[in-house]
Amino acid sequence: VVPPSPKVTEPPTPSRGLSGFEDDDADEAAAQLGGLDLGEEADEEDFSQFISEEAAPDVEQDDDDRAEGDEEEEDEDEDDDDDLGDFLSEKPKKKKPTESKEDRDARIKRELESRKIAQAAMEKEKEQKRKEHEEWLAAMSPEERQRYQQELERKRRQDEEAQREAEAERERRMMEEQRRKAGASAAAGAASQEDAKAKDRMENRWSYVGDKLVATQVERKGPKKPVKEIKLKFPQRKIGAIIGKAGVNIRIIEGKSHARLQIHKQKPADGEAEDALVTIKGSQENIDVACETINMVLEQFKAARRPPQKK
Question: Pick from 34, 51, 71, 16: which is nearest to 297 by CA?
Fold first, then answer.
């Protein structure tokens, strides 16, 4: 008996990270960036190419130079349940026994006779009550008969008046309900407009805190600007990751956000400073996307620098 040959398995290939090892955070950041490989950090040649020679402007931010954060929710489409299994599982209904023509004619004849008998009984009962009523009226005196006729007329008029009042009450309630719905709809529309205006006045103010950019919701002063500019301070060690080798990362950020990034050269007096100034220019939405993309880039490089976990 020849023993079965063992299966040949290849060693698992680690995912291609920035440092050549597998990391969940790096994979997640790369997936959010569209699967793009950010490569290595920028070198001295890249710094000289992508850092502006202009002196860095003042870092102070005006109240108008704040970015607006708009969070968009993707609607998830839900598939309808497939009811084919329920349809197939239903038991077939039993067919009713067919009725012959003779039986059908006999059944119809019996039904007609039963209806005629019931109709005759009703007519007989009605005629009996009419005769009893006429005898009762004949036994009355003329004065009693007149009072009786007047009482019948009074009741008939009362019933007609009550019917008219009920109809008027129904119409009044219907009009009130229509006015209430119209008022509620107008109030809801006004409230939604106020909410939209209040949301439109809110913006994101970005700042570098810890190891990432953080947005704070603030109220905008003045009208919304189609193009604006914000200034952010980053540690000097993060600029290489933002630029990337041969500028690949800064091109990714600008391509995804359609915003313009400018990295300023430090002033001579600030030669020993640890922070570098980056200017982002574009619309509110463009600036928000640029800041979020910068966070993804920094997270991927941060994850790539972590030592591999020992198993």
Answer: 34
